[in-house]
Amino acid sequence: xxxxxxxxxxSDLMIFQxxxxxxxxxxxxxxxxxxxxxxxxxxxxxxxxxxxxTDQIRYxxxxxxxxRPDLLQEIVDKGEIYKHLDxxxxxxxxxxxxxxxxxxxxSRDYQVAVESSNLNAVGSIGNLLRMQAQRAxxxxxxxxxxxx
Length: 148
Hints:
Blueprint: E1 3-8, E2 11-17, E3 21-22, E4 25-26, E5 28-31, E6 36-40, E7 47-51, H1 55-67, H2 69-77, H3 81-106, H4 108-115, H5 119-141
Antiparallel strand pairs: 1-2, 2-5, 3-4, 5-6, 6-7
């Protein structure tokens, strides 16, 4: 496993690097702390950097590095880390949006707030329903590996 642990400001930064190298640098690497994926082109040697900004990717990276670092290393080694995270981000966002819509449709309190044009209640209840949706979706799509 090409795992690099750096001590910086008292915290461990976990960087998974691919075995394949270009000019002694890994072709692919993911920093689980900054949610950053770097790709060095084997043809040109140029580096592209992608940063994910969503909570679900942060939670997923920390969860997989803790529970299944071997799987994360395999995804990095295969050069599939960017595609994997991008697809996961899209699928989780879509699932949270669908679940939120379903919860809003079935919430009597939310419907009453909408019908009475009570924007404060619509916002508050809507935020709570979104948090419920996130919890349900994250449990099924992010936190895949549990302690036995």
